Known about the structure:
heterodimer, A: alpha/beta, 6 strands, B: four-stranded antiparallel beta sheet, 5 helices
Amino acid sequence: MxxxxxxxxxxxxxxxxxxxxxxxxxxxxxxxxxxxxxxVEPLLGxxxxxxxxxxxxxxxxxxxxxxxxxxxxxxxxxxxxxxHPTPVIxxxxxxxxxxxxxxxxx
Amino acid sequence: xxxxxxxxxxxxxxxxxxxxAVLARVGRLVDVARDGRFATVLCxxxxxxxxxxxxxxAGHPPPLLITAERCExxxxxxxxxxxxxxHYTPVQVTMPGxxxxxxxxxxxxxxxxxxxxxxxxxxxxxxxxGGPLEEVLDGIFAALIPSGPHDDTAAVGIRWHG
Lengths: 106, 162
C-alpha cells in the first residue's frame, strides 16, 4: 500500500475470441488513470457487441476517474462485467449508485 | 459541467419540481455515452419552519446529520449519477433543533488504502463536538485533508437553531 506517493497500478488486456479481459491491479486515481484509458481506448471504437470483463480482484482503490472509464465503455454499446471486485471496490460501486448499472460477477 | 448543472437544478427547483424530479430532468442534459461525462449530485429542499428536508441522491456520498450526541449518515436511496440514469427516490428527514446537516464531495472521505466507511468514520469523529459551524468545518478540513484542500474537496454545512 502506498498512501502518500502516487498510485501504482498495472493494467493487462487479454483478447480472447469470445471476450476481452482487462485486469486492473493496484490503485487507480486521477494521477494514473491514463494507464486504464490507454488500455480501453482501442476497445471503444469496435463495431458490434463485445463482452468486456474488468477483472477487479486485485484492485484496491479507484476514484471517480476510473468509474468514468468503466461507464464510458459500458455506454459504448459493449457488454461490461466486473469480475470479483474487492470489498473496497464494491463499496465504491454502492455509494456511487452503480451496483445496478454495472453488472458484477461474484 | 458543474455550473451548467447547478443553473439547471436551480431553474427546475424554482419551478417547483421535487428533488427526485429535478435530478431526473437534469439527467437529460448530460449523457455519459454521448459526452463521456457524468456527475454525482445531492439535491434537497428544506422547509424552514418544520425542519423537514427532502433529499434525492444521484451517486453521491450520504449527507450527515450531526447533533451534540451523535453523527449519522442520512440513509438516502442512492440512484445512479446524473448522466447515467434517470430514476430517483426521495427520502424525508426532520432536522432536530441545533442539528447540522453536512454534505460533502467524495474527495473529503476517499483515501487510498482504506474503505469509504473508514473515511466516513473519520469525518464523523472530526464533525462531532459542536462549536460554531465555521469552526466545525475548519476542523473537518484540518483533520481530513491535512495537506490543504484540493479543488475536488468541498463541504456544505447547514445548522438549525432553536
